[in-house]
Amino acid sequence: MSETQSVTVVGLGPMGQSTVESLLRAGYDVTVWNRSSGKADAMVELGARKASTVAEALDAGAVTFLSLTHYAAMYDVLGQAVPELDGKTIVNLSSDSPEKAREGAAWVTERGAAFVSAGYMSQGDDISHPLSYLIVSGPQDLVTTHEELLNVLSPVHYVGPDYGFSQVYYQAGLTLLHPVMLSFEQALAMVERSGADTERYVGYAVKSMDSLKEFLVQFAEAAKVGGVEDIAMLKMMDAGAQHIIDASEEVGVDATLSHAAQSMWRRAIDASDQSGGVVTTYRLIRGD
């Protein structure tokens, strides 16, 4: 098997394991390395080859995927095998800030390797799910060269040559996801603690998510002119947040998230009163 068909995966957490499994299914010769050998042994059972050192792992193929906790771990790992970086391509799938991705790219390229920054937007660790995709940034010609390989993992969404942009879009995605997860748990707990039918509520919640798609488009258009609210809407959202807080706390459900939302509406109302004009929550969040 040629070198271009041989790839390496370093870091075998849930996403690293999913990466290995997808590559093996596609017929690639996969070498793995992990700090703890147990996870590597599990991948060997699926057909991967285990490297005993990082240097051996890098030597096994032209492309190495990193699936680590953060970029700081990249320095610890690749620092063990700097001479082997020359001429290789590193695809870092790790999550971190955009600036740390740019700094990491500089560190790798200064040591003779090419670099691609990437991140899975996936359904949990199911990178083959129809809704999963891979956000990628870095030199376009390099991404094009390895596009077939990258598409084996998840459909590639190239977002530009700036190494940090993959993390801008990735972290923006999580910024949306995290409060949705927490607010759904609050809502579900409110329904359950109230003695209402949680299964019925889940159906309503799914319909709400479909409706939210339209709101996102509307909010994005409004953001171009500074945001969506007028004073009446700000006051309505403040009152609505209080109703959610009351409904939650009446049955002993934590409403921290709703208090935080209410504080934003109230800040916008106060800022509007002080300025004599509308100050939207988007302007506050953006830091205007």
From TrEMBL:
GO cellular component: chromatin
Keywords assigned by UniProt, alphabetized: Oxidoreductase
Membrane spanning stretches: none
A matching Pfam family: NAD_binding_2
GO molecular function, one term: NADP binding
Protein's GO biological process: transcription elongation-coupled chromatin remodeling
InterPro entries associated with the record: 6PGD_dom2, 6PGDH_NADP-bd, HIBADH-related, HIBADH-related_NP60_sf, NAD(P)-bd_dom_sf, RedAm-like_C
Domain NADPH-dependent reductive aminase-like C-terminal intervals: 162-286
Span of domain 6-phosphogluconate dehydrogenase NADP-binding: 7-155
Similarity comment text for this entry: Belongs to the HIBADH-related family.
Protein name: Dehydrogenase
